[in-house]
Design a protein that fits this description.
The structure holds four protein chains of four kinds.
Chain A lengths: L1 H10 L2 H21 L3 H26 L3 H31 L13
Chain B lengths: L1 H19 L5 H22 L5 E9 L4 E7 L1 H20 L8 H20 L3 H10 L1 H11 L4 H27 L19 H18 L8 H8 L2 H26 L1 H27 L4 H20 L4 H32 L10 H4 L1 H14 L6 H16 L1 H26 L14 H19 L2 H20 L1
Antiparallel strand pairs in B: 1-2
Helix pairs in contact in B: 1-2, 1-4, 2-3, 2-4, 3-4, 3-10, 3-13, 3-18, 3-19, 4-5, 4-6, 4-10, 5-7, 6-7, 7-8, 7-9, 8-10, 8-11, 9-10, 9-12, 10-13, 11-12, 11-17, 12-13, 12-16, 12-17, 13-15, 13-16, 13-18, 13-19, 15-17, 15-18, 16-17, 16-18
Chain C lengths: L1 H22 L6 H25 L6 E12 L2 E10 H24 L6 H20 L3 H19 L6 H32 L4 H7 L7 H17 L8 H4 L5 H10 L4 H8 L1 H5 L2 H22 L5 H21 L3 H28 L17 H15 L5 H16 L1 H26 L14 H16 L14 H7 L14 H26 L14 H7 L4 H50 L4 H22 L1
Antiparallel strand pairs in C: 1-2
Helix pairs in contact in C: 1-2, 1-4, 2-3, 2-4, 3-4, 3-10, 3-15, 3-19, 4-5, 5-6, 5-10, 6-8, 8-11, 8-13, 10-15, 11-15, 13-14, 13-18, 14-15, 14-17, 14-18, 15-16, 15-17, 15-19, 16-18, 16-19, 17-18, 18-21
The chains are: A mainly alpha, B mainly alpha, C mainly alpha, D mainly alpha.
């Protein structure tokens, strides 16, 4: 099995990973713009995070450099922190305006 | 060491004033700080032997090749002396003002002084620019919170207008930084920039606009009278005495070396505009009823002449202009101080409300008269030396322009004497008792007038300071 | 070395006096202040005399270098004094007459509470005037030139509580300043041409080249400067108004010294003028016109000092006529004699005014010869001196000018003679109206104190014998003043009066006869008068015009003063307020408008902003892509 | 092996699309969990075993559960969300597509990646990641704890503030309809 996995790195071209990650990222981006539900938007953000993580890992594997994976680890840390804060804000928002519709947040209007 | 002291003394004092808020002692602390700065500058002067003294030269933004270079040459030193010399008097003038939060006022003034020192010490174009814009910030707050009527609108106008010029200057500087190979904006290498003449012709205005607004030159001047009239006394002093000299300094240090061909191309246009301003300001000043506004227009007139002299670009014109810059700084402080002193006594700076004050305040009248002698450039006062040199310089450019320039001495006499008459002369109509010149008035006016007279009789020290740098500047120009 | 120190002391002593008096002006009494001021100027006079005694005319002159003044680039202008025949002559006049007038002022001003200030300013004036005449280059002269202008301003407006006096002071200063524009331009031009402003160097270099346009311009500018200071057409209207000042001031500044600065300047730079005949012609005719117009105005003035003021303008015109003909020594001679008798007349007038407690209108005088005898006698001497009665000082100096005039053209002689007769007429009118007839005023006349009468007597003597200074060959002299001045100004060597003795005697004869006739006419009309003619409105047109001073003041007011005020006010209210400020506001408005446009994009809609951000990212990526 | 890659890729893309398009948030969460699991599969394929484990624990185990909690807490599981206007939706899809195309175009021309010569399949193992993490990145690792702390404090503050406010105005009343309208406006 281990041998098989190692060959997988060689068999699957890096470009495939690139395209896959771009696709996932783009879906996330489209979702952020597409949806009005804040919680879905947060999920799309997670999706984008993960596409980047995957890309980093792929590069790491191809370059045989463990440091990129450490960065992925850090990104996960940050993502976890971000999600907690984001969800807390969401809860606040629900309490204050009784909605999770992102269009309610238009106080930035100039 | 000198550079560090000059920047740190006012800066740290300002910080201390801002956070400790010693309301009672604020003015004294600020005064001591400015006197210390003056001492440092005078020491630098006594130790100065010529050339450019560089105190710091280190990497700043390595990826752009920018370096943090601080130092001074003769012209810079002159400006430093000027700044250091007028600030104690500006602070002292504040003793008569009853402004709220004196510690904040003095802190802002000292911040301004710090940045002004920075402007005159910077030996890199971008560094110069940063200090140039920084110096505006404390003044902005000072005007905004302590100004007179309509302060909000006028301050914002002033700020936008000056920033517009600054923006244009920044654009020009960045354009230049992108031009030459290996050019990093240092004043030392600034002359090596070879920009094509066709580019120089428009680039000149891009660079010059900022200084034209700051000075101000004729069509760009209209922020000035309102701002001067509205600003608190000390603010006007800072603006008129020192801040506008930054424009002059910038023209010498930046505009001329970068776009010499542009300067040559636009020389007569600028002189013409400057002289129109000089005459225009002189004529308008005659009928102004507010003393401070009159000073604003008279300053416009003087500065027009200054700029015209500078743009003669010969050794008399430039030296004269620099000398006159010094004289003008002292003059503006004196004049504004007197307007403040009169306002203190009469309660308004409207000249219609004054008249006949000589009866009550003969000493103040005598001091005013001496200031007036300087304002109309009587010989043996400082202004005369500067004006004479400028006239001599302008004549070499164009006789007609020289004629126009000389005619301003008549305009100056007309409005100054009329103002003197309206304030001081005439029948005594004051029922109340009025204090004559106080110790404070003497402390401010007497030394300034003494300097004025001394440098009018013996201008050597200052002229020596600028002579060599000016010669070098001009010879580098003719090489191009 | 000792003479150098002495030279420097001459101007410095009055300056020291001015500084001391100005700073102690509240602690000193009028008499102490006056005494100190007089002592200092008298010391200056003594120093001048010593210098004059020790001066060897044949050496040409000496320069005493005091200080480097302006030295930058190629310009090197020292603060230096020059001692030569010309400056010595002027120094003696300034300090000598100055001392007398200082002395006189002690008596005249003793009741004024601001007497110390007055003496300080008088001393300051002496300093400035001495700088003017002693300067070794144009710029030093200009120091004095402006300095006397300032002092004149201060002293005319000495009684500052009266607005009209302040106006007169301002007018004097501004008109002088207009002349100064010419002076500055002339200096700039000369500096450009010669690279120096030292008189000695310029005069050496300036020989040759007739009618060089640059020289014509320079001399014309110098002359403009001189018209301002010496009250010539078109800038003379300030001088009569300047009579607002205390009378000693009128005597010292506006008769004897300051107003002759223009003549001094032209004599100083005579070499330049010799190479510009065009300018000389202009000087000649402007001088003539001034002499006649001023004299005509003098005929109808009723203010004792105004009569003398117009007379001064007229006499200055004569001096300019002399200059215009190249008779520099004649001009200087007239400067000297005029200084004597005009100072005398003014001081006499001051004595009269003092005697009458401030009355200046001659319609309220008359019959004073009995009550103030010394004043009357000295005034009489002054009058006959200025009228040019034979053997008086004015006779020699004025006749010299008129003789040169005849040499130039008989028409000019005619005009000058007419002017001289006018002078005689109005001076005797003044004399008769003031001292003869019956007293028409109310105050009780009393003779002035000794400090005032001594100067009168000294000046009266000088007015009589002043002619000896330059006694012509005709009377057995050998023109000592001319020969003295020659050593300082080369041009004087070439002056030559080529008239035969017969012609000269004839001219003198004609003049003398006509002068006596005029005196008789004046006697007949005015000596017995108890009242004076009525209002100006009743006069015929021309007479009224002259009596109203050719309406020059009104003309200038209409042409310059009022339009200037109008322009000043309207430049502010119209151009500045409605063009300049809106343009500036336009910048702000443009920023606001742009903000208004961009503001609409700030909907606050989060997804819109996200979309915009996304588009931006795409664009940037595309740009990067394209550039690869 | 390629087949396995394609399988995981297909799962992740399809589930990602469901995340975006599902009407009910619960469905989105479930789809996202599936998506994350497939990404964990990718990690395994890349021999990044440590990451795969951490990923499953942190994301699927912690974060997604948090999401579920919140949804349930706030009672958001109804598909009440009003859809955006058609124009915005089309714009979103077009923009996302364009973005994707641009990125793909970028690597078509730009990036060429060659696997390193000294290939080491063991980089993703716990050992090598751990060595790197605790040698080279020890300080950031420690600092990240501070990040967590601050996040925790922030969350507590956010949650608490309302309670304090509510406590001050004694009876806790639900917002009135009018008040709601006002706030929405």
């Amino acid at each position: 099995m281990e041998q098989g996995i190692i060959t997988a790195i060689r068999v699957v071209p890096l470009e495939h990973y690139l395209v896959l990650c771009f696709l996932l990222f783009s879906i996330g981006v489209a979702g952020v713009v597409f949806r009005r539900n804040t919680i879905i938007i947060l999920m799309c953000l997670e999706l984008m995070f993960n596409s980047v993580n995957l890309l980093l890992t792929a590069f790491s594997a191809y370059h045989s450099d463990p440091r990129a994976q450490v960065f992925v680890f850090f990104i996960m840390l940050v993502a976890a922190a971000e999600v907690t804060v984001g969800l807390a804000i969401l809860v606040m928002m629900k309490r204050n305006v009784d909605s999770v519709d992102v269009n309610q947040l238009n106080r930035l209007k100039g | 060491m000198i550079v560090a002291l000059l920047l740190l003394i006012p800066f740290i004092t300002a910080l201390a004033l801002m956070f400790l808020r010693p309301t009672q002692q604020a003015k004294n602390v600020a005064l001591i700080s400015t006197l210390a700065s003056l001492g440092v500058v005078l020491f630098a002067w006594s130790a100065y032997t010529g050339g450019t003294v560089i105190h710091y030269n280190m990497d700043w933004v390595p990826s752009w090749g920018l370096r943090f270079v601080m130092g001074y040459d003769g012209v810079g030193l002159l400006m430093l002396i000027l700044t250091a010399m007028v600030f104690p008097f500006i602070i002292a003038a504040g003793y008569g003002e009853k402004l709220q939060h004196p510690s904040l006022v003095n802190a802002l003034l000292l911040f301004t002084q710090t940045f002004l020192f920075g402007v005159f010490l910077a030996q890199n174009t971008l560094l110069f620019y940063i200090f140039y814009e920084l110096s505006l910030i404390p003044v902005f707050f000072f005007l905004l919170y302590w100004g007179g009527e309509h302060r909000r609108a006028i301050t914002v106008k002033f700020f936008i207008y000056t920033l517009l010029g600054g923006l244009s200057l920044l654009f020009g500087i960045i354009y230049c930084l992108g031009q030459g190979e290996g050019f990093n904006g240092d004043f030392a290498t600034i002359g090596s920039l070879n920009i094509p003449t066709s580019v120089q012709i428009w680039l000149f205005w891009v660079l010059f606009l900022a200084f034209a607004i700051k000075l101000p030159i004729f069509p760009f001047h209209s922020w000035q009278p309102d701002t001067y009239a509205m600003a608190p006394l000390q603010g006007t002093m800072v603006l008129g005495a020192v801040m506008l000299k930054m424009g002059l300094y910038g023209i010498i240090k930046i505009v001329l070396p970068i776009v010499p061909q542009g300067v040559v191309h636009w020389q007569e246009t600028v002189i013409l505009l400057a002289l129109i301003g000089a005459i225009y300001g002189g004529i308008i000043a005659f009928r102004q009823s507010d003393l401070k506004r009159l000073i604003a227009f008279s300053s416009l007139s003087h500065v027009g002449l200054l700029c015209a002299g500078l743009f003669a670009w010969n050794s008399y014109g430039v030296s004269g202009s620099l000398y006159q810059a010094f004289a003008h700084a002292l003059l503006v402080v004196c004049m504004l101080y007197i307007s403040g002193a009169m306002k203190e006594r009469v309660g308004s700076s409207e000249m219609g409300a004054m008249g006949g004050l000589k009866v009550r305040t003969p000493r103040l009248a005598a001091l005013f008269l001496l200031v007036l002698a300087n304002a109309v450039a009587l010989p043996l006062t400082q202004s005369f030396v500067g004006e004479w040199l400028m006239f001599a310089g302008l004549w070499q450019v164009n006789g007609g322009l020289a004629l126009a320039a000389v005619s301003t001495i008549v305009l100056g006499a007309i409005y100054m004497l009329f103002a003197y008459q309206r304030v001081m002369l005439g029948p005594d109509k004051w029922a109340l008792e009025m204090t004559d010149a106080t110790t404070r008035d003497h402390f401010v006016l007497v030394p300034l007038i003494a300097i004025t007279l001394f440098l009018g009789v013996y201008p050597g020290p200052i002229l020596e300071l600028v002579d060599v740098p000016v010669q070098q500047l001009l010879s580098s120009l003719s090489l191009n | 070395m000792r003479t150098d120190l002495l030279t420097i002391l001459v101007p410095v002593l009055p300056l020291v006096g001015a500084i001391i008096l100005a700073s102690l002006r509240r602690k000193l009494s009028a008499n102490v202040a006056g005494g100190l001021a007089t002592a200092l100027i008298a010391s200056s006079f003594v120093a001048s005399v010593v210098l004059f005694m020790g001066f060897e005319a044949s050496t040409g002159g000496r320069t005493v270098h005091m200080l480097d003044w302006i030295s930058v680039g190629g310009m090197d202008i020292p603060l230096a004094l020059r001692i030569d025949a010309l400056s010595l002559t002027m120094m003696l006049i300034v300090t000598g007459i100055g001392s007398l007038i200082h002395l006189y002022s002690i008596g005249y001003m003793h009741e004024d509470e601001r007497a110390p200030t007055f003496f300080a300013q008088l001393n300051l004036f002496s300093f400035a005037m001495l700088m003017l005449v002693m300067g070794s280059n144009f710029l030093i002269t200009f120091i004095g030139w402006e300095g006397v202008g300032l002092c004149s301003y201060l002293l005319i407006g000495f009684w500052y509580k009266t607005p009209e006096y302040n106006y007169a002071a301002r007018k004097a200063f501004v008109m002088n300043r207009i002349g100064d524009v010419g002076m500055v331009l002339a200096m700039v031009l000369l500096f450009e041409r010669f690279g120096t402003l030292e008189y000695a160097s310029i005069m050496d270099m300036a020989t040759g080249g007739m009618n060089d346009p640059l020289m014509i311009a320079a001399t014309l500018f110098l002359f403009i400067g001189a018209t301002g200071k010496s009250a010539q057409l078109p800038l003379f209207t300030w001088l009569p108004d300047a009579m607002a000042g205390p009378t000693p001031v009128s005597a010292l500044i506006h008769a004897a010294t300051m107003v002759t600065a223009g003549i001094f300047l032209i004599v100083r730079s005579s070499v330049l003028f010799e190479s510009a005949p065009f300018t000389k012609d202009i000087i000649l005719w402007i001088g003539t016109a001034t002499a006649l117009i001023a004299a005509s105005i003098g005929l109808f003035q009723n203010d004792i000092k105004k009569v003398l003021a117009y007379s001064t303008v007229s006499q200055l015109g004569y001096m300019f006529v002399a200059l215009g003909m190249g008779a520099y020594s004649a001009a200087m001679f007239h400067v000297t004699t005029h200084a004597f008798f005009k100072a005398l007349l003014f001081l006499g007038a001051g004595s009269v005014i003092h005697a009458l407690g401030g009355e200046q209108d001659i319609r309220r005088m008359g019959g004073l010869k009995g009550s103030i005898k010394i004043t009357f006698i000295t005034f009489f001497v002054g009058t006959i001196a200025i009228s040019g009665l034979p053997l008086m000082s004015g006779f020699f100096s004025k006749d010299l000018i008129m003789a040169y005039g005849f040499q130039h053209s008989p028409v000019l002689f005619g005009l000058l003679l007419f002017g001289a007769l006018l002078t005689t007429f109005y001076m005797f009118r003044l004399l008769f109206l003031v001292f003869y007839g019956t007293y028409r005023g109310k105050a009780h006349p009393h003779e002035s104190p000794l400090t005032m009468t001594i100067p009168l007597m000294v000046l009266a003597v000088l007015s009589v014998i002043g002619g000896l200074l330059n006694l012509p060959h005709l009377f057995g002299g050998h023109e000592p003043m001319k020969h003295f001045l020659e050593t300082a100004a080369d041009a004087i060597r070439y002056e030559h009066l080529g008239l035969s003795a017969t012609t000269e005697w004839t001219l003198m004869g004609i003049t003398t006869v006509l002068v006596f006739t005029t005196i008789a006419m004046a006697y007949g009309r005015f000596a017995k008068r108890a009242t004076l003619e009525g209002a100006e409105a009743d006069m015929p047109f021309l007479k009224r015009l002259i009596a109203q001073r050719w309406r020059l003041d009104e003309l200038y007011a209409a042409l310059f003063e009022r339009p200037y005020g109008w322009i000043s006010a309207h430049l502010f209210t119209t151009v500045e307020r409605h063009v300049m400020v809106p343009v500036m506001n336009g910048v702000g408005a443009a920023a606001l408008a742009m903000g208004g446009v961009v503001r609409k994009l700030q909907t606050g809609n989060t997804s819109f902003h996200l979309l915009a951000m996304l588009c931006g990212m795409i664009v940037f990526l595309l740009i990067t892509l394209m550039s690869n | 092996m390629l087949a396995l890659f394609y399988l995981f890729a297909a799962i992740s893309v399809i589930s990602a699309l469901i995340v975006v398009s599902a009407r009910s948030p619960i469905n989105s969460v479930i789809a996202l969990v599936v998506c994350f699991l497939s990404i964990a599969g990718h990690y395994v394929l890349l021999n990044a075993q440590f990451l795969a484990m951490v990923h499953i624990i942190v994301y699927t185990g912690a974060i997604m559960v948090l999401f579920l909690f919140v949804i349930m807490l706030l009672n958001l599981n109804k598909a009440t969300e009003p859809m955006k206007s058609l124009g915005t939706r089309i714009a979103a899809v077009v923009a996302g597509g364009l973005f994707f195309l641009t990125l793909v175009a970028a690597i078509r021309h730009g990036i060429t990646v060659r696997p390193s010569n000294e290939f080491d399949a063991g980089v993703g193992l716990v050992r090598s990641v751990g060595m790197s993490l605790f040698n080279e990145f020890l300080l950031p690792f420690e600092v990240s704890s501070v990040l967590f702390l601050s996040a925790m404090v922030g969350v507590v503050m956010l949650g608490k503030k309302e309670a304090v406010l509510a406590a001050s105005s004694a009876p806790v009343e639900p917002l009135t309809a009018a008040e709601l309208e006002r706030r929405k406006a």
